[in-house]
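Narrative summary of target 7.
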Amino acid sequence: MIPFLEERRELIRIGRIAFEAGLTDTHGGNISMRVGDYILIKRSGKMLGYLKEEDFVLTTVNENRELDRFASMELVVHRAIYRENPEVQSILHTHSPFAVACSLKYEDSITPIDSEGKLLLGEVPVVKAQKVVSSPEVAEKISKLLTKHRVAVVYSHGPFAVGKTPEEALMYVSALENSCKILAAVKNL
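Modeled conformation, tokenized:
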């Protein structure tokens, strides 16, 4: 029997929604959930929109070389977020095109101008680092920011959102992408 079957099914559902909503490309992004002292995270190389129950790695909140080797390359960031934020139960990272574009334009923070974005997100920090993928520097910076914010964007890479559920994390990524689309539309009017 596969451990944490219901949790896997919820991560599969949210991954599919994120992909179908255009929040990431076919092989981009990752998703995880804290289950006690463990992290259930997408396997490296698996498509977020087409996950199966066996496409997850169950590893520990602390580094575990044996279990970590097949996990998403962003495990270092997920793990840092969980350690810094004990209330966080789920993380979603996508390569949302409008959020990435806004990170390139606004560089320090993205400030939504639409009412939902203002209400849900407020100011969204943009994190810069020498290396943005699988980066200990990003892990350190973003884990601290996500104690005060529900979503932050890695410059040129994409948002990381946190929630008490995978659906809540999706809500923040989706709201951010929508706010960034509105910013782009207003700029082009």
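The chain has seven helices and eight strands.
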